Amino acid sequence: MSVKHHVYLVPGFFGFTNLGELLYFGHAYEFLKQDLARRGIDAEVVTIVSHPTASIRQRTADLLKAVSETASGDDGPIHLVGHSTGGLDARLFVSPGAQVSDALELEPFARRVRSVVTLSAPHAGTPLATFFLGLFGQQLLKLLSLFTMYVLRFGRLPLSVVFRFGHLMARADDQLGWKATLLDQLFDQLLGDFSSERRDAVTKFLWDVGRDTSLIPQLTPEGIDLFNGGTHDRPGVRYGSVVTQARPPSLRTRLAAGLDPYAQLTHTIYAFVYGQTQRMPLTQLPLHTPAQTAALVQAYGAMPGPTACDGIVPTRSQVYGRVLAAVRADHLDAIGHFDQPAHQPPHVDWLISGSGFRRPQFEAMWKTIGDFLMEEEAPR
What we know:
Number of domains: 1
Distance between the termini: 18 Å
CATH topology: Rossmann fold
Structural class: alpha/beta
Helix content: 40-55%
Strand order of the largest sheet: 2-1-3-4-5-6
CATH superfamily: Alpha/Beta hydrolase fold, catalytic domain
Order of helices and strands: EHEHEHHEHHHHHHHEHHHEH
Radius of gyration: 20 Å
CATH class: Alpha Beta
Strand content: 5-15%
Oligomer: single chain
Number of strands: 6
């Protein structure tokens, strides 16, 4: 009798798995589920609903709740795949002695975990979190989240919104450019295009974001240093990471984005967040093992520099355990949010970075993840 595997996909910052057709892991879920079935693996793949910007401890408690509800009927192995902050949730879940919930006991499930895969995760933090600690940064982050949900629902933002937001980004260093009234207007315009039911769900999601933003300081390089000091690897668990590096904003990436005004102005958003992310303090860059360094050099042709990033997380901050793949991609490409509308179902992008990441690279990357998850199941 085959053993049943339980695979959990853990979303990152602003994960919105619970917003109906707005699927965070949509493409990844379908591919991984089909890939495991082709291998003859009896596996249940579950996407996690997390508090979007709550603390890592709270988000890990959300993960524990989902695992307890879906994996209590047997003693099959558990595998965790976390994107961005979801990778940190997964690490805390398996850390020996971790206490994340008063209502549920973690250890019976943590000791069943066989593998942890992190994608584009900020294991050494990200300077972008430091920017978002400010009041305007928090408002901007909520707006970017709404942008993401809008694009996944409707395909693209209205050009009127893009032009106004692009103007705001162009004046990022001018305090007169930070107009709260403009942000309110953009919110109202975008929310007005959703159905009444969907608008209520999105509004509640954004309210949850504003109510608890304790995750943001935890993702700064200084905050993650404290997290790493208290979070330890569990013996017997295999840890692997997928690393992403996007091209720096330049004339080349603008040309790659195309001549469409929407693409050009959303590329401005990418250029802004990239500029914030590349400010990683040299003292916060982690040391890598020879095997990790070799994997990065083989993939990129050279060791990524201290400013290399995927637009959201520094590239060298993403390395943890075995480097399963190191790809040219932005932060959202790895979970299927890239520009390939002809594919069915379509891939929709909002962080237009000009990375060139497409479905073939996506499938190869997720097949590698499947290989790692089921490594112990391979014929010997």
